[in-house]
Amino acid sequence: MSTIKDRALASDGHKKMDWVVGRMPVLGALRERYASEKPFTDQRIAISLHLEAKTAVLAELLHIGGATVSITSSNPLSTQDDVAAALAERGVTVHAFRGATDEEFDRLHQRVLDLEPTLIIDDGGELTDRLHSSRSSLADRVKGGAEETTTGVTRLRALAREGKLRYPMIAVNDADMKHLFDNQYGTGQSTWDGIMRTTNLLIAGTTVVVAGYGWCGRGVAERARGLGARVIVTEVNPVRANEALMDGHQVMTMDEAAGYGDFFVTVTGNRDVITPSHFAKMKTGAVLANAGHFDVEVDVKGLRAMAVETIPGRNANVEGFRLPSGQTVWLLAEGRLVNLAAGDGHPAEIMDLTFGLQALALEYLLSHPLSPGVYPVDPDVDQWVARIRLKALGIGIDTLTPEQQAYMASW
């Protein structure tokens, strides 16, 4: 039985799912095949992803493909309760509701793992963490899984280096059709969507500080510039700092940038990126947002400890903190990833690519038994997703002649 907030919300959830499904041609092509081939018959798939409409379409797809599916959210604030209710009506077991406490969040993940999964789809390593700690007795039953985030892949590789990873995981995040599009264009658009709908503030003419210039960070920076902002980038990697500089952004340390920013967006995957020493230098009205997986990039505990007063914002996703020096800074979505905690996440056309890779990665694991470790997405799978996307857009591309192929293969 599902654990959701209110089954009566399902009608709105169905509308959201129906809105995006027609804009996801990769999953549409898989749905047609899965309905007849049932590649996941007898498989039990546990999923931890941000539970909104596009994710629900993926979960339903795997169910159509013959799997028993149980899903929870990878963030306490990213569950859309109406979508959770709709998905439960479509045959998927759902254990998720928005606003779960830390204890409830863990309990919901435990309920999903009660499925005793044979395959997993993970976001940030939430399921893998539990399968290697509190539910380690289930790990040997897992044939493998797919991880879709930079944070999760980083955690998996650390586990593998220590020789402790107990099943194969495919690093979907590193596939070209994922990180070049989801990370850059998806994060760029959805982050600013979350910030703007939450604050209703003008971006043009402001100064935006972006912490981190990986694929996600450069997407956030480019969209900010497109909205008319001046962009400052902070980095710890000298190569990426040079990239940001040559892309036309200012580059400086966070200590230097703290006094300039009107908006601060963290996209590093690391902790303590913005700390009390930086808060003290900020001008009044500065807005703090995080677009990384965990709520550790902005030191929220440190901010609460140094504040002399907290001030309610215009809605539940905005909270003000008056500092000892008199200025007020504003925190969005409790420091959790703003594009999902305060928005709808990436556009459907983007998540179609990522979720197509996720489904195909699980198929690959069933036909290619692997030893424990972290593996790349098969290049043919990456290419198939790219071609389906172009076909859906009515775009044709050239192909190499046999002579050209021979020439490229010769020395």
UniProtKB/TrEMBL annotation:
Cofactor entry: NAD(+)
The enzyme's E.C. designation: 3.13.2.1
Residues engaged in binding NAD(+): 149-151, 183, 212-217, 235, 270, 291-293, 339
Cofactor note: Binds 1 NAD(+) per subunit.
Keyword annotations from UniProtKB, A to Z: Cytoplasm, Hydrolase, NAD, One-carbon metabolism
Domain S-adenosyl-L-homocysteine hydrolase NAD binding: 183-345
Primary subcellular site in the record, as a coarse category: cytoplasm
Pfam families noted in UniProt: AdoHcyase (PF05221), AdoHcyase_NAD (PF00670)
SMART domains, sorted: AdoHcyase, AdoHcyase_NAD
Top-rank taxon, per record: Bacteria
Binding-site positions, substrate: 123, 148, 178, 182
Catalytic activity: S-adenosyl-L-homocysteine + H2O = L-homocysteine + adenosine
Record pathway: Amino-acid biosynthesis; L-homocysteine biosynthesis; L-homocysteine from S-adenosyl-L-homocysteine: step 1/1
Root EC class: hydrolase
InterPro entries xref list: Adenosylhomocyst_ase-like_sf (IPR042172), Adenosylhomocysteinase-like (IPR000043), Ado_hCys_hydrolase_NAD-bd (IPR015878), NAD(P)-bd_dom_sf (IPR036291), S-Ado-L-homoCys_hydrolase_CS (IPR020082)
Location of this chain's protein in the cell: Cytoplasm
Job of this protein: May play a key role in the regulation of the intracellular concentration of adenosylhomocysteine.
Family statement: Belongs to the adenosylhomocysteinase family.
HAMAP family reported in the protein's UniProt record: AdoHcyase
Protein name: Adenosylhomocysteinase
Native source organism of the sequence: Sulfobacillus thermotolerans
Gene name in the database record: ahcY
